[in-house]
């Protein structure tokens, strides 16, 4: 069969799939009895299971020889091109076409072999059992083609979730993975050099990342856990297993892959993003073009907050720095989760200890808001501040949120000005914890390498450029991470409902400044010392204060503002030389 014909048949099959399936039958006799004469075509589950098993064997066998052919062809092409032979380019083109065509066949056989995974108990094919929980299914395998992503957004059957986790737990033994091993060459993911697609848990979690409701349910707090999380018994068993107990292995390709990358950690982060934010993890929240992506509004609920409280407890624990270091692929997701709850973090940091929380200044934006407790919030911030990526995401969200608070409380009354003061000092405290944590980790990581330490801090200061691409609307800001696409947007809440062109708001002013920063020569700020890093941080707080009081000429002369600069500086730096000793978790040490 020619490949063009194969592609045509696939397209026709897709068209037919859009209509309800029916079996051909003899038209009913027009008799008065209301009976009908059925046709004799019948298909039982055993027959379907046999077809699935045949497709599975074809997939396994063809996958092995296809990968061998690809690797050999590309190696030969590279050698010929190095020697200056034009044939090398032609062979490379053939190898590329081979990859595209073999993917089509592998995708088709994988889909056929897994069709009965979603059946109810007792209906799965008998021939399926000897393979165990099949690695790939329409619900749990990730592909990058649009049609496959749509398929992933179907509800993940609860029975499948429970059986996969139970099966995986039973076989969670060091150096004895049933999925990633030398004899399993059933690769089903050719779209990432760092994920061969052999670990079904990775694909399952990626699917949850595209199904926020199922993800929130999968990681839900146990019944009767109560408000907040302050002990491990209040953690969801699935969350505890996947973050602390499961043995994760790299599934990277030997040729071209990075064995330090664990794709499963990345997918775990995606699932947790969906579970905590209510958004599909790679959605653009400002489009609302896809019915699965509501868009342009705060999607948090009491249930998503319950998952976030667990995440804050876990990664803010004593093991948090070690967990973040060993699960570095989660850093971007943890940063986006922290940014999504920046208002609740500020609320938890307000008041004195865990008393006198300021509901007036930080009113809940959804029912059943998260409360992390002051120390819980400090611990979490001090851990995610250690990583360059998560530090940048939360710093950008905090700065924009503080600016939106100033926008929501203009200096037109004493009450408004009191709220602006508290917003600046609370925001300064959060920023101070993040920045101190970042400096301490850079100093620990690059102990005797001052240049590398300064480069790391220079990169960490680049978060100010994020404002250049921020989009504001519906009470949220969509902030792109550096060098990312829409799949890596940080969705952060705002205090003011700023919709459309924000030129005349404080947020708009800061976005304009962000554009200016983005156009600067990056080599100018390639390196900064810790002293310069802190100076930049406090200067950003001072700029926000200057913008606020500069909005009204009469405000500058208000005697109540006399102590503001010192209050803001103290909130950022802390008070006393030993303040940092008890502002959260220490830097990670190898």
Explain what this protein looks like in three dimensions.
About 50% of the residues lie in helices and about 0% in strands. It has three domains: about 50-115; about 135-175 and about 190-315, no CATH class; about 325-355 and about 370-590, no CATH class. Mean pLDDT is about 75; it is low at about 15-25, about 30-35, about 115-155, about 290-295, about 500-505 and about 520-525. The protein is mainly α. The protein has a three-stranded antiparallel sheet with strand order 1-2-3. The protein has 20 helices and three strands.
Strand content: under 5%
Low-confidence stretches: 17-27, 31-37, 115-154, 288-294, 499-506, 521-525
Give the total of beta strands: 3
Assign an overall shape: globular
Our Rg estimate from Cα atoms comes to 28 Å
Strand-pairing-aware structural class:
mainly alpha
From the N-terminal CA to the C-terminal CA, the straight-line distance is 57 Å
User: What's the number of domains?
Assistant: 3
Q: What topology, given as strand order, has the largest sheet?
A: 1-2-3
How many distinct helices? 20
Kindly state the percentage of residues in helix.
40-55%
SSE order: HHHHHHHHHHHHHHHHHEEEHHH
How is the main sheet built?
Answer: 3 strands, antiparallel
Average predicted confidence as pLDDT: 76
């Amino acid at each position: 069969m020619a490949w063009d014909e194969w592609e045509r048949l696939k397209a026709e099959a897709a068209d037919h799939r859009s209509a309800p399936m029916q079996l051909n039958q003899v038209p009913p006799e027009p008799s008065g009895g209301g009976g009908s004469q059925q046709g004799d075509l019948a298909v039982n589950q055993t027959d379907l299971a046999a077809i699935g098993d045949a497709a599975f064997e074809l997939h396994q066998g063809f996958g092995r020889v296809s990968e061998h052919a690809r690797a050999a062809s590309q190696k030969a092409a590279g050698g010929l091109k190095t020697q200056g032979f034009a044939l090398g380019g032609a062979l490379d083109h053939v190898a590329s076409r081979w990859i595209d065509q073999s993917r089509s066949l592998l995708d088709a056989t994988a889909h056929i072999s897994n069709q009965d995974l979603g059946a109810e108990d007792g209906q799965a094919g008998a021939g399926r059992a000897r393979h165990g929980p099949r690695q790939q299914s329409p619900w749990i395998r990730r592909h990058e083609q649009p049609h496959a992503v749509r398929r992933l957004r179907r509800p993940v059957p609860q029975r499948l979730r429970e059986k996969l986790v139970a099966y995986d737990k039973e076989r969670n033994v060091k150096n004895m993975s049933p999925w990633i091993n030398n004899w399993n060459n059933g690769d089903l993911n050719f779209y990432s050099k760092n994920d061969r697609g052999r670990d079904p848990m990775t694909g399952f979690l990626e699917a949850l990342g595209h199904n926020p409701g199922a993800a929130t349910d999968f990681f839900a707090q146990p019944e009767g856990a109560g408000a907040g999380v302050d002990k491990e018994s209040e953690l969801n068993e699935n969350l505890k297993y996947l973050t602390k107990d499961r043995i994760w292995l790299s599934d990277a390709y030997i040729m071209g892959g990075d064995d330090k990358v664990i794709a499963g950690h990345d997918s775990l982060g995606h699932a947790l993003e969906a579970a905590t934010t209510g958004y599909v993890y790679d959605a653009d929240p400002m489009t609302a073009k896809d019915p699965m992506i509501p868009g342009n509004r705060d999607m948090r609920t009491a249930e998503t907050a319950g998952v976030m409280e667990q995440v804050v407890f876990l990664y803010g624990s004593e093991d948090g720095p070690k967990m973040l270091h060993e699960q570095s692929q989660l850093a971007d997701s943890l940063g986006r989760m922290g940014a999504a709850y920046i208002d609740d973090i500020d609320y938890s940091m307000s008041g004195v200890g865990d008393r006198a929380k300021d509901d007036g200044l930080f009113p809940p934006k959804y029912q059943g808001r998260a409360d992390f407790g002051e120390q819980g919030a400090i611990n979490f911030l001090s851990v995610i501040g250690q990583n360059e990526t998560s530090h940048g995401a939360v710093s950008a969200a905090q700065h924009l949120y503080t600016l939106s608070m100033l926008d929501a409380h203009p200096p037109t009354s004493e009450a408004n000005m009191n709220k602006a003061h508290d917003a600046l000092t609370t925001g300064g405290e959060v920023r101070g914890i993040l920045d101190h944590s970042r400096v301490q980790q850079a100093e620990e990581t690059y102990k005797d390498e001052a240049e590398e330490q300064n480069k790391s801090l220079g990169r960490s200061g680049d978060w100010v450029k994020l404002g250049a691409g921020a989009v504001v609307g519906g009470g949220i800001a969509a902030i792109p991470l550096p060098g990312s696409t829409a799949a890596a947007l940080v969705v952060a809440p705002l205090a003011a409902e700023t919709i459309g062109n924000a030129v005349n708001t404080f947020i708009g002013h800061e976005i304009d400044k962000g554009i200016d920063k983005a156009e600067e020569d990056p080599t100018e700020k390639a390196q900064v010392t810790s002293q310069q890093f802190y100076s930049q941080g406090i200067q950003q707080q001072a700029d926000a204060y200057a913008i606020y009081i500069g909005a009204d000429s009469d405000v500058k002369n208000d005697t109540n503002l006399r102590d503001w600069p010192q209050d803001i500086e103290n909130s950022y730096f802390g008070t006393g030389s030993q303040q940092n000793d008890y502002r959260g978790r220490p830097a990670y040490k190898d």
